[in-house]
Structure formats: structure tokens, C-alpha cells
Amino acid sequence: MRPHRLPRSFYLQPTLQVARQLLGLYFVGLSRGKQLAGRIVEVEAYLGDLDPASHAFRGRTNRNEVMFRKGGHLYVYFTYGMHFCSNVVTGKEGVGHAVLLRALEPAEGIPLMARRRKRSAALVGELCSGPAKICQAFALTRKHNGTDLCGSVFWIEQRDPPLKRGQIGASPRVGISRGKNFAWRFVILGNPYLSR
DNA sequence: TCCGAGATTCACT
DNA sequence: GTGAATCTCGGAG
To answer: Cβ of residue A132 near strand B, that is under 7 Å?
Structure first.
């Protein structure tokens, strides 16, 4: 199939649906004139209004303002005084939903990713196997918070036919203390590039 | 106004 | 297994 960038309408669908459909798609970005890309293999959904683990649960603040924009924006936040994590905002304006990118299978620009991660390019499995690692490999920072994925810097692309239902696994999310009962972490079953 | 915990990762023990 | 990095927010004082 011919690769194509996903339109705004994709991100406006219900959040859990977007989360599942993101698996197998490619997160692509331009950085220093080079194209970087990774296949999305693990995500987590954060449904602000229902979800005590979400930054948006208690309403809008300066930090989470981007989560309340319409779907298709990139929400990059700083945490643990150390790391950035990146989310795809979903749903209509004002909803406060997003999908956290947790792991990618590196596809393009591996030498540049490895340099940024301070890892050998041979260790492909350690370049994007965690939300903060993705940001480091793609050089995503506060500056990119609010980037429109329907623009020309970062976007999401479909390159392969959609996954079959049986290839997708759902489980509770990782690294949180509240909202543990929701099985809102989605993975490509058996993929070697998952986090943890 | 201060304190603790957090959607994490890495180096070291 | 444990601690450090040190931003942001909510709740206590």
C-alpha cells in the first residue's frame, strides 16, 4: 500500500479507538533535516475526565493546556525533573484526552537516534523502548509541546495494512498509582521492542 | 509558602 | 534493589 499521513479526522475518533489504531502506524519527524521514523508498538490512553491518573483529571492548567485542544496535537510534558514524555491529543476541543507513546520500533534515522540516546546503533531495542527514550531519540522537548501532527514537522503515517484484532493486547497501565484498574495499555503482542 | 509524589531512566550496589 | 536527576501541581500549614 502507498504510505499516507493521517488526517485530522483520525484523531477526532473516540480515544480508546485511536489508541488501538495507532499500533502498527509510524511516528515520523524531521530533525536537523533528517527524517526519523518508528513503528508504534505500545501506547497508553489517558481519558482526562474519567481518569485519576491523567494530568487533565483536575481540569486545565498551564502545563496540560494542550491536552484540551482538538485532536491531532502533540502534548509533550516534563516529569521527574529529568524526562519528557509525548502524547497524541485525541477527541474534540475541550475534552482533555490523549494517548501516551510508550514504545516504538526504530525504522529510519537509527544512527541519529543512537547518538542522542548515547547508545550503539546495534542496540536498536534500547533506542525507543520507553516514553522518555522516544523523546530523547526524536529530540522532543518542551518546544514541541502543541505541535500540530497535521503539519510538516511531526506526523503519523500509515505504511502497512491495519493489524488484525488478535495481534493487539490490552493490559493495565504502567508506572501509575491511581486508575490502575483500567486496561488502557495497548501493545502489539509478541513485539520485541516493547518497554519493560 | 513549603512538601511530597509523579504517565522515568540510568548508574551503581 | 536503591537513589538521583530537580519540574509541576495539589494539598497542607
So the answer is: yes
